[in-house]
Design brief:
Blueprint: E1 6-11, H1 19-29, E2 33-38, H2 48-55, H3 73-80, E3 83-89, H4 91-99, H5 105-112, E4 117-121, H6 125-128, H7 131-142, E5 146-147, E6 151-154, E7 160-164, H8 168-181, E8 189-194, E9 199-202, E10 205-207, H9 214-225, E11 229-234, E12 246-249, H10 253-264, E13 269-272, E14 279-281, E15 300-302, H11 306-312, E16 318-325, H12 329-339, E17 344-349, E18 361-362, E19 364-368, E20 371-375, E21 379-380, H13 381-395
Parallel strand pairs: 1-2, 1-3, 3-4, 4-5, 8-11, 8-13, 11-12, 13-16, 16-17
Antiparallel strand pairs: 6-7, 9-10, 14-15, 17-19, 18-21, 19-20
This protein binds cytidine-5'-triphosphate.
Amino acid sequence: MLKGKSIILGITGGIAAYKGAALCSKLVQAGAVVHVIMTESATKFITPLTLQTLSRNPVYIDTFDERDPAVVSHIHLADHADLIVIAPATANAIAKLAGGHADDMLSTTLLAATCPILIAPAMNVHMYEHPAVVNNLELLASRGVMFVEPGTGQLACGYVAKGRLAEPEDIVMAIDSWFGKGGKLKGKQVLVTAGGTMERLDPVRYLTNDSSGKMGFAIAEAARLMGADVTLVAGRTSLAPPAGVKVIRVSSAQQMLEAVTSVYDDMDIVVKSAAVADYRAVNVSDQKIKKSGEKLVLELERTTDILETLGQRKKHQFLVGFAAETEQIEHYAMDKLRRKHCDLIVANDVSKDGAGFNGDTNIVQVFASEGLVESMPLLSKREVASRLLELIAARLPSLGGRGE
Ligand code: CTP
């Protein structure tokens, strides 16, 4: 998808600037024509010569360093770009773009550009969560800027938290998928549920499960990258939501049911990746339950099956459920597909290494009414999300697909 595409790679001044070299190299290897623009601060972390060598093009830093009298560089670059990628994007670079500042080569080129912009932020977690940064990201998302979210892990500042630049392969995948199917879901309303639910027993205790929300958040991010308007109903998760996505936070299965049904009529695609509790306490104690006796028996009752409810009320919506299984995957997946009137069921064997609840990877099989339609090997949850949405887009009746 990248062959012959003209990409401006903006590298700004954070420690992750060194990963810009790997990203540049991968884009060039994939056939893209890459023009690198660095900020002055980025040059403190990595040399322009590295990027010049990898991109096989001159690197731009200073707006006034005009080398070709026939053109004005920032306008020329902006006019000929198919996409601008900023990776890493610092809090300052994000603020400048949000505020429309144009005081260096990168910010000036960004203002002159009419092509899409993709930003991969990287910074300390407290900076990433600062209200100013959150507002700037929201503002940019509302203008159609796309994002590859930072990952969670060891940060250069010593924290283990969200803020790491997404891996270069993930950024390349996002770029590739944007060229392949960018805008494929434009105008579509996508609802994603993610995370686990919490069922209270008393003020300090609850029943929950191991779901991290990573799969659902990756689906929300991928849908946004494909141009959809995304609503994310998130249960228990420690993840920060992807920028540009409308988030409704819920706790219990009942709250998730209410949130989902309140927006369901307006949705085109619904992906139910949340791990919803099947049972809740019959009586939730107002006071902390004191211990008494050797055994405690909790009386539980069934929650409403949200996916099944949506299946019964289905009109035009394309409905995708998940099935976490430990045996007879196909049998249970097909049973859920029929019982809950889904268009697709994404099944995973949660007993396998690399599949399931808490990791960054998954191994899934996707079933439709005719049986298995795609079997994905061990992949990052981002890649699973991207392939799943591609499959959904291909089958969406309003886009010419055959639906159920
Ligand atoms: N689901 C739901 N509401 C529930 C339970 C599950 O919407 N109360 C949805 C999940 O979000 C998922 C799908 O149903 O998309 C399958 O969830 P899973 O836990 O695998 O299956 P269950 O239907 O609970 O069936 P079982 O417990 O028999 O495996």
